[in-house]
Amino acid sequence: MLRFAISTLFLLLLSATQLSAQTEMADIMRSNGKIYVVVVVLATIFAGLFVYLFFLDRKIGKMEKEVKTN
Amino acid sequence: MGKWWWKIACVAFVLYTVIAGFLMPVPRLDILNETIRNLYFHVPMWFTMIVLFGCAFWYSIKFLRSGDMRHDAFAVQFTNTGIFFSILGMLTGMEWAQYTWGAAWSNDPKQLCTAISMLIYFAYSILRSGMRDEEKRAKISAVYNVFAFAMMVPLIFVLPRMVDSLHPGNGGNPAFAKYDLDSNMRLVFWPANAGWILLGVWIASLKVRLALIQNKREEVF
């Protein structure tokens, strides 16, 4: 099952790369000197940072409750 | 916990800044070129620092009036987070200056004045770490914090404007008014400031809450 999944994924990736090599699609991620790729990377980093902050916030919230009950 | 809405607003503003800051149109200016987009990231560091130091100033006065050690914790953590943002602002400014003014450090009056006020706040941390007695430390550092804020305001807002400077808004240069902040840039610039200020306050509030928990634990055990 796993082998099947990996091989189909591989085939899909292969076909995708071949497609993109043949024809330039009107893909927003490849236009304008690929600046959108940088924007996506930065957005990912900031989203990750915010997720981290949210979890930290929750953890501190739990600690506050612990201290209150003690 | 409890009030999440401003944290969600913070996330929305900062993510909007990161995306729109790159993709919105900006004025085409020589020398600056695309680096004008740094305005969305470099300037909010200073806005955030000023707000955080302002909060620290407020809590220092509150501490001096009340003697409540919790206000001391607020003042310290807001100052520390403000120092962190000032370092970010200084580094981003030097990186920007390297490629537009030709040198990372050109003894620009605003650079010098902010460097002085940063040193004043560094001295705050050193002053605190040099004292063992908690009450004394809180009282002396609160007085010092009021002094530091009173020094920072003229150093950043007044003195650089009285002499020629490379920074916009100083020495006859227009500030965020004419060519360097058109209506399109305002659409990103002000949300950027709001987002980064909220982020600074968020980080500072987390540090305050941790400090308060630690204080309580020390009392219990």
Protein topology:
The complex is a heterodimer of chains A (70) and B (221).
Chain A: H1 2-22, H2 35-69
Chain B: H1 5-23, H2 39-66, H3 69-100, H4 109-129, H5 134-162, H6 183-220
Helix pairs in contact in B: 1-6, 2-3, 2-5, 2-6, 3-4, 3-5, 3-6, 4-5
Describe the protein:
The complex is a heterodimer of chains A (70) and B (221). Chain A is mainly alpha-helical and 70 residues long. Chain A has two helices and no strands. Chain A has one domain. The mean pLDDT of chain A is 76. Chain B has 221 residues and is mostly helical. Chain B has one domain (5-220): Four Helix Bundle (Hemerythrin (Met), subunit A) (Up-down Bundle). In chain B, 76% of the residues lie in helices and 0% in strands. In chain B, helix 1 (5-23) packs antiparallel against helix 6 (183-220), helix 2 (39-66) crosses helix 5 and helix 3 (69-100) packs antiparallel against helix 6. The longest helix of chain B has 38 residues, at 183-220. Chain B is globular, with a radius of gyration of 19 Å. The two termini of chain B are 25 Å apart. The relative contact order of chain B is 0.17. The mean pLDDT of chain B is 88. Chains A and B meet through helix 2 of A and helix 1 and helix 6 of B.
